């Protein structure tokens, strides 16, 4: 990677104390973190993943389907477990058997019927989703939330992941999935650095040892992260990795 520029130096200084106890793995969101606003893969993020995935596990954690997330892990050569459907699915290794967290499914299937009675929306990838229902941002999220809780559904909630709205299990998220991945890798969630951009990243921010929000994250998401990056989208992701490396805060394979 090229030399770190001057604007990173303050961030590097903040990260220096972590040199004593370097992080063992990275967990990153995909949309809005490795991609640009139009969802195209960000060149600086692509380069950073290529450079670092050989040296430290990079776990992709997405609200997208397993099929999508697994394929992204192949083309980015992360060669590590992946998290899909906002934590509903954990794939321990590329050709492994998925762990499916879906105890709330009966309630979710009832809730989507109730939502359909009150709102117009398009369901995404229904043929491919097992634990999470994703739909278009054509409904009022607050009204939908009130309808769901007012209808007595206690096991599910609604999260706005910026690119889609998701009906998810209340006790299943990228943070709970991070704990499952940590167990698979035999390390603590606190050994992870988390990087993300949206509401569906907040639980993994809390679960990880250190969290970064990319500069494009909304304020309520930035507030939940330990560090807010100056750079947006994939340039923010690259900024996080470069500054961690520069500070010696990552345990990298030679
Ligand atoms: O599926 C979405 O809505 C967003 O996906 P992400 O979690 O990779 O940002
Ligand atoms: Mg995102």
Automatic annotation (TrEMBL):
InterPro entries: HAD-like_sf, HAD-SF_hydro_IIB, HAD_sf, PGPase. It comes from Methanolapillus ohkumae. Its EC number is 3.1.3.18. One of its GO terms (molecular function) is phosphoglycolate phosphatase activity. Gene3D superfamilies: 3.90.1070.10, HAD superfamily/HAD-like. The keyword Metal-binding applies. Keywords: Carbohydrate metabolism, Hydrolase, Magnesium, Metal-binding. The active site is at 29 (nucleophile). This is Phosphoglycolate phosphatase. Its cofactor is Mg(2+). Substrate binds at residue 174. It holds the Pfam family Hydrolase_3. PANTHER family: HAD SUPERFAMILY HYDROLASE-LIKE, TYPE 3, PHOSPHOSERINE PHOSPHATASE. One of its GO terms (cellular component) is cytosol. It catalyses: 2-phosphoglycolate + H2O = glycolate + phosphate. Belongs to the archaeal SPP-like hydrolase family. NCBIfam families: HAD-SF-IIB, Pglycolate_arch, PRK01158.1, SPP-subfamily. Catalyzes the dephosphorylation of 2-phosphoglycolate. Mg(2+) binds at residues 29, 31, 197, 201.
């Amino acid at each position: 990677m090229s030399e770190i520029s001057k604007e990173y130096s303050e961030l590097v200084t903040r990260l220096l104390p972590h040199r004593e106890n370097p992080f063992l793995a990275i967990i990153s969101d995909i949309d809005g973190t490795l991609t640009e606003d139009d969802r195209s893969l960000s060149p600086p993020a692509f380069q950073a993943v290529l450079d670092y995935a050989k040296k430290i596990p990079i776990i992709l954690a997405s609200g997208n389907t397993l099929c999508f997330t697994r394929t992204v892990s192949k083309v980015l050569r992360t060669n590590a477990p992946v998290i899909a459907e906002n934590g509903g699915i954990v794939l321990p290794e590329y050709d492994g058997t998925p762990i499916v967290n879906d105890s709330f499914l009966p309630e979710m299937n009832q809730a989507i019927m109730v939502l359909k009675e009150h709102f117009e929306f398009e369901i995404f990838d229904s043929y491919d989703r097992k634990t999470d229902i994703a739909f278009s941002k054509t409904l009022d999220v607050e009204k939908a939330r009130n309808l769901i809780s007012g209808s007595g559904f206690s096991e599910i909630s609604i999260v706005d992941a910026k690119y889609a709205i998701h009906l998810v299990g209340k006790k299943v998220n990228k943070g709970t999935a991070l704990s499952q991945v940590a167990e698979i890798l035999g390390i603590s969630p606190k050994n992870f650095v988390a990087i993300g951009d949206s509401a569906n990243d907040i639980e993994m921010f809390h679960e990880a040892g250190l969290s970064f929000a990319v500069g494009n994250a909304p304020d309520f998401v930035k507030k939940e992260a330990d560090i807010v990056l100056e750079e947006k989208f994939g340039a923010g992701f690259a900024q996080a990795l470069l500054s961690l490396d520069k500070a010696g805060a990552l345990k990298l394979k030679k």
